[in-house]
């Protein structure tokens, strides 16, 4: 009797997990399929013209702006985040009050909706510093947004480096700085990279924080002080204007491909770095 | 001549009194074994000798430790001390880089840049650690691809590469199989001519096979310190006898 009861519950649990997995995968396939079906037929050559006008609604300027804004954001946020993480993981003493405060702050920051960052960036960079709607204001805002993510993942990566490496290095008479830069940091690179990839994902997918800061001008930015729209903002504009919904779907297909490419590329980089060590 | 002279050494981890009034004189050019049950302070004392305990928060040390007459806790350059007093750890801990770079890490740390010079040091260190023939054709390969015993000999080579005067070994064979252990013991006997070696071991046979003197530790105190033969054949203290005959520990 007991045996039979367990069996039913096992079957039930199996069914539930199977169902959950099926729904998850099904939803994902549905979403991707829907975008592909609606978008692929509208992938016209005019969509890839170098310059945008309201007839061709080209996505090329947005694609380039996305890459530019992503790179500028990372250039600001990654060094800051990684060095802050090095301080937290390697230099701060255990039980340090400041560390607890920094941890709590970053945790809180990562929970703030991106539109709040947008509002702040709009008031501070665009208005107060007088940068106007610009690539720089957008990237600065995004870099603040991804900073907690980069910092936390870098800190976790540094902490997961075995202490035996540090001991080995100290035992040979290497100082703290050399140990951190030559032994600990290289071992943590794959983990740091994972955080950077997540950050890139957030940048590419961001709209709210950029509308207030980088503006929505569909052009290839000639300088960091010019306005630009990323692919996501571009999509938002197309669909909210309602005139180019089909092109909006085609743009979504491109965005999807870009995200898949980024993931594949970073997976490959991480693998190569992992193999070298 | 003594490599280390320890007088009235006390060590505390926060409130815990881990080493109590240690007085020891360790002879240079010899292998000294530290034996005793787990938690008796032998590894702690070992780490005191190259100030690795500095890295432990809440660790406080009083007393006098001299390396060839110099007080190592008296504003000595810690990095220089650790170059002179090398250390091999319980678990092989090669860095995740190539075999060559592992051995060259120490010399590079201390300012040697010439590729030729580094190559010479790497070869002579690997030879001294009796692993050259096994790795000479794959110096560019990751050190982590080596077997556990090879990794430990690589770590010994890495320690030798900065030409230390003393080698501290914290149970260097406890993670290895008997064959690798045998190789490392043979190696230590050849190294004795050039380096003073202090080894912590749980393996009493190992202590008798390789060491010249033995110190027996219990609860943070040195109970007995004498030539290995004397300690194992005619221990003066009842507790030493109980331990080496396997009655506790």
Q: Order of helices and strands of chain A, N to C?
A: HHHHHHHHHH
How does the helix and strand content of chain B classify structurally?
Answer: alpha/beta
Q: Count the helices of chain A. How many? A: 10
Strand tally of chain A, please? 0
Largest interface: A-B, 22 and 28 residues
Tell me what the CATH architecture of the largest domain in chain A is: Orthogonal Bundle
Give the beta-strand count of chain B: 10
Number of helical segments with 4 or more residues of chain B: 10
CATH superfamily of the largest domain in chain A: MetI-like
Task: Report the oligomer.
Answer: heterodimer
In brief:
The complex is a heterodimer of chains A (277) and B (249). Chain A contains ten helices and no strands.
Task: Give your account of this protein's structure.
- The complex is a heterodimer of chains A (277) and B (249).
- Chain A has 277 residues and is an all-alpha fold.
- Chain A has 2 domains: 2-42; 45-276, Orthogonal Bundle (MetI-like fold).
- Chain A contains 10 helices and no strands.
- In chain A, helix 3 crosses helix 5 and helix 4 crosses helix 5.
- The mean pLDDT of chain A is 89.
- Chain B has 249 residues and is an alpha/beta fold.
- In chain B, helix 3 packs across helix 4.
- Chain B has 10 helices and 10 strands.
- A 6-stranded mixed sheet of chain B has the order 6-7-8-3-9-10, with helices on both faces. In chain B, strands 2-1-4-5 form a 4-stranded antiparallel sheet, with helices on one face.
- The model of chain B has no long low-confidence stretch (mean pLDDT 92).
- Chain B is globular and about 55 Å long.
- The chains are: A mainly alpha (277), B alpha/beta (249).
- Chains A and B meet through helix 6 and helix 7 of A and helix 2, helix 3 and helix 6 of B.
